[in-house]
Amino acid sequence: MILFGLNQLSYAALSENDLVTQIDDPHIQIGSNFFGEELLVFGAMSGQDLSKSDIIIKVEGASKALSVRERINKYGIWINDTEMVIDNIPSFYAIYSNRSIKRITSESLLKEQLIGISNLNFKSDFDSEKSKIIDQAIIKKNKEKGIFIEKFTGIRIIGDRLFRSSIELPQDIKEGTYEVSIYFFEDQQLVDKDTSNVFVNKTQSGKFIYNQANENPLLYGVFSVLIAWAAGLLVAGISRVR
Amino acid sequence: MYLYLPIAEVSVNLFVIFGMGGVVGILSGMFGVGGGFLMTPLLIFYGIPPIVAVATEANQIVASSISGAFAHWRRKAVDFKMGTILLFGGIIGSFIGIELFIFLKDLGQIDLIISLSYVILLGAIGTLIFIEGMRSMIAHRNEKVVQVKKRKDRTWVHSLPLRVRFKKSGLYISIIPPIVIGIAVGIMASIMGVGGGFIMVPAMIYLLRMPTNVVIGTSLYQIIFVTSLVTVLHAYENQTVDVMLAMILMSGGVVGAQIGAALGHKLKAEQLRFLLGILILAVCAKMLIELAVEPKDIYVITDAIL
């Protein structure tokens, strides 16, 4: 869990338009019984007219390429068609805000800051009609998996000054560095932005097994077989005693 | 209790997996079959990626075939010479199978081929068991003596070159047929995650004319080493062996096999065989339906390998 907490500073020490955030412990551990975690983000803002202020929080994981295959019906069964590769897809992407982002600021500013799932730029090298359909399929699937999130009621602003949000990290979130950006808008204008990193680590046996399987595959394979041999011999021994 | 499997990358209910290991263990204890041909489809139905199900099931079969082989070895019911020749073929087949597996995986068609292989295999085995179970039940009811076909002593198999004497089996035959059988079993082990006993055993009896008492022990002896090799090859080439999943299945299987062996003595064999046939056909039908029904997601999305 991390805290974008309020510093020990008093409100008076803040400059005109400002946002205060702080990371206490930006490390998330995934154990073998990880069921998702809540990332608690909060902070304080100061400015001229706080009744017109809005906050957007963006959490983004490293981009990667996906392989997409259309399922086509051939001879009565559904088979995979040829592969299409779509690049530049964040492994995790969450937008939390206190109200609809379209009301917070202009479409062009959202686009410029890459805020909003519809403003993500997936890269593909086939015709645009097809790629639009596929982009939608990817977005739909990632939303279902909980790795693409848009929650326009996800931030609570308390007394015009403090904000608070808890971002849901799904169970199958990948290990790595996640960038957390907090945007402070006042009267449609972006007045401040704070960016920090959160680190997700897999711990315990799960990570050890995964690493061994990928880094020492031969040794891992031999070890798996040895376990099976030991188990088999143990059972053979038990049955003999009987 | 839920557990996150590190290689399959899914959370599973520990008791469901243990229970599946147990149920398949009971069946293998009762019928003397390995159970890989049921376990792999069950794992796929539960949501384990097919390529992980296949590789991990090969790993589990290593354990169950060792304990089985030891029991037969104690009764001196293993023809080691024949087993080693079958194993030689099995090693060749495993390497061919793995290459084929990687080729199909790169084509994006491996899941389809795994499912199709199972539909064909389970359909064939299920039908055979079902018919045989029904025939013996009818024969039993009519109290007719089941006619045993007189087997021909010599077939085309026995006229092939490279003949060797197999003392234990009392045979003097060419090594070509056992090598070919071994290759077929090795390919199946790599692609389907099965031991292949249900193919090897009939082939040894009807094709090679081996005495029935050494057939199961000899096939288990071969399966130990072929599935060991297949496990290592899958781990090395595809990183798809989930050792955590394998261990749960092994422990479930051990418990189940003990129960199954005890049950097998008490229940009527023909009726059980009939039920096993129905069960196998049901799994086959489910697999076929999943291939034929329009998928919920028309696009299959996976991480790209660049």
Topology:
The complex is a heterodimer of chains A (242) and B (306).
Chain A: E1 18-20, E2 27-30, E3 37-46, E4 53-60, E5 63-74, E6 77-90, E7 93-97, H1 101-104, H2 107-112, H3 128-144, E8 148-151, E9 156-158, E10 162-169, E11 176-186, E12 189-202, H4 204-215, H5 217-241
Parallel strand pairs in A: 2-12, 7-8
Antiparallel strand pairs in A: 1-3, 3-10, 4-7, 4-11, 5-6, 9-10, 11-12
Helix pairs in contact in A: 4-5
Chain B: E1 2-5, E2 10-13, H1 14-31, H2 36-46, H3 50-74, H4 80-107, H5 110-141, E3 163-166, E4 171-174, H6 176-192, H7 197-207, H8 212-238, H9 243-266, H10 269-292, E5 299-303
Antiparallel strand pairs in B: 1-2, 3-4
Summary?
Chain A has 242 residues and is of the alpha+beta class.
Task: Give the low-pLDDT segments of chain B.
Answer: none
Q: Please tally the helical runs of chain B, counting DSSP H or I stretches of 4 or more residues.
A: 10
Main sheet of chain A? 6 strands, mixed
**Structural category of chain A:** alpha+beta
Uncertain spans of chain A: 1-14
| Cα separation of the termini of chain B | 37 Å
User: What's the overall average pLDDT of chain A, rounded?
Assistant: 81
Oligomerization status of the protein chains: heterodimer
Percent of sequence in beta strands of chain A: 35-45%
Q: What percentage of residues of chain B falls in helices of 4 or more residues?
A: over 70%
**What is the tally of beta strands of chain A?**
12
Q: How are the strands ordered across the major sheet of chain B? A: 1-2
Please, how many helices of chain A? 5
The outline of chain B comes out as globular
CATH class type of the largest domain in chain A: Mainly Beta
